[in-house]
Amino acid sequence: MPGVKGYLLVDSDGRSLARTLPDSEQIGSMIVLIRLAAEKMRTALDLERLRHFVLGEGETSFLTVFPLGRYLLAVEQTPQPGIDLPQAIRELVVRFQRQKG
Predict the structure, then answer these.
(1) Is the pLDDT of residue 37 over 90?
(2) Which residues contact 77 (CB under 8 A, 6 or more apart)?
């Protein structure tokens, strides 16, 4: 996908299942903790669901994390004008889930 620099797929304990990002063990455990905090915020604000969250939105790269059931997919990306990467990844995940289901 255009703009993707790397990815990390972890289970609910932060164990790396697939990756191209360096420091995957550290990143995995941190995004699990951040997801727990984001879920608490979602509940407190009475929001329907958590689609994704963004860390370190910057000029060179940032990390978008997608909860996928028991898993988390973290995608490091570079800003790409005109490309809604979170939407493209959500669509990819939905297509994958339909194929499996």
Answers:
(1) yes
(2) 3, 4, 5, 61, 62, 63, 64, 85
